[in-house]
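To whoever is on call:

I kicked off a structure prediction for a single chain this morning and the downstream step that reads the tokens threw a length-mismatch warning. I double-checked the sequence; it's 603 residues and nothing unusual in it as far as I can see. Pasting both halves so you can look.
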Amino acid sequence: MCGISGIINKSEYKVQKEEIQKINDLISHRGPDDEGFYFEKNFAFGHRRLSILDLSSDGHQPMHYLDKYTITYNGEVYNYLEIKEELIKYGYKFSSQTDTEVIIASYDKWGEDCVHKFNGMWAFAIYDKEKEIIFCSRDRFGVKPFYYTEIDNKFVFGSEIKQLLEFYEERFVNKKILMDFLIIGYENHINETFFENIFKLQESHNLIYNLKNNSFKIKRYYDIKQTEINLDENSSVDLYKSKFMNSIELRLRSDVKVGTCLSGGLDSSSIAAIASSMYKKDSNEKFIAIHAKSSEHDSDESFFAKEVANSSNLDLKLIEPTKDEFINSIDDVIYTQEEPFGGPSIFMQYFVMKKAKEIGCTVLLDGQGGDETLVGYERYYPSYLMSLCFFDLIKGFFNSSKNSKLSKKQLFAYFVYFTKAKIRIKRLQVKNSFIKAKYFNLASFDILEKNSKNYLNLFELQYQEIFYTQMPHLLRYEDRNSMRHSIETRLPFIDYTVVETALSIPNKYKIKDGWTKYILRKTIDKILPNNIVWRKNKFGFEAPTKSWVNSIEDEIIISISKSKILSEISDSINFNTLDLNQKWKLFNIAKWEDIYKVSWREE
């Protein structure tokens, strides 16, 4: 796990050491163990290393191979040992125990198709000397970031936006993305960012830069097709359990200490229980789990975390972030995240990663992706019901309130709200009446309308949330919070074989008798206590939002009032009509504007 940097001078001038050094230093937190550079006639690579596999100097990057390739790489390819064995049979030789060397050898053997071999997370750039190209790639679901921009006859890429901002004297807000966030709540849903002219390479895509003519093309290399395997319930459970356990086992491969995040919910508890058993068997040590306790009773899950720790023999590290810690970390978290985010729960994750750093646990497993892949959100319920035959649909409707949080009235309300885009847009208009009409209309209502049409197709709904509207911003939070503290996080639920299996299992086993994520509950039914396996409520490192936001009420009002961006989009803001979510969003925008010196481009 590391950080990468790259500068290509289209004018053929050599990149100066100070230039690449400066943007590489900005991501020193991503790789505190080592740094390296590579210079060619008109481009340069930079690298910061966080040592996870092969801690020796053999893992130094940028890494060279066969005098034909040079790579700067961030991530982990978990199945590197299996790929390495295959390549050895083809006659390849290796001088290190790293996955980095396996990636370059794979590129030599299979070219651009090498990415189909990889099971993991990655963002890398490979200089191919013979073809005179730079082959860049980002993993299937975008766990690892890759940003790029073109400015002043340069193409610049990096792991974080702040590296690219160094090339801009003025930074302008992307108005459309701002409105998407403020009005609809969309983040990271397209390749644009909150900053004008700074883009992300989207998940499942490769970028090939041609050094001969300074052009580049972007190609999608991976997609998920709708398929359903014809299996009964027991066979479905067995299949999913096999893929899930293999995913966890692969993600325990490390030459440094591994632990896990533990909210106490179903997803993180499942990972913790299975990983603990595997880890103790291999190392004879207790598996570390870190839980962030909310100070508000309604969002406190520490009881469940302790229950899991006791039943799975975990070494539980429990933290309870205070109001003062929240206040003192606001600037750092907003700087770390680089783009505005939806709420203070991000801070809880930040404090978990900080604790992991303090205790020397360099790798953490986490439960991102469980809800999106296993139909865990209540809003999926109407879509799920419409995927069933008529008899099962009627039965499912009457069972909806049996083992879920939804009443029949709420279920119907979900159906109307998420399928009727015009009703939803009207509600958003009323809620955001302080925004000037010309800016309100910039929001991506076309995407919202498309999603409303797809809402009753469960596969299409999951597909949209995995690739666009839900998982991308959760993965961004995860990456920035973890790497800010030099921690590598690994996500067993979004191993691509686990995702494909989850989406192909018959829908009637994803939700059954009102139970969401039924297939996972059956997977760990004999592994965890019943009150964990069959609990209905879940939070997931929920922050004490109300008390935290109320504690900075004065600062929120001052920051919003001083914001030039907010004064441009609004005639006036009545603070008494704002809910907690709106207050946080507006405050977050104002603080982000100030921290990153963002301006409003006049039309």
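Update from on-call: the warning came from a stale cache, not from the record. Cleared it. Sanity check on the structure: The chain has a mean pLDDT of 94.
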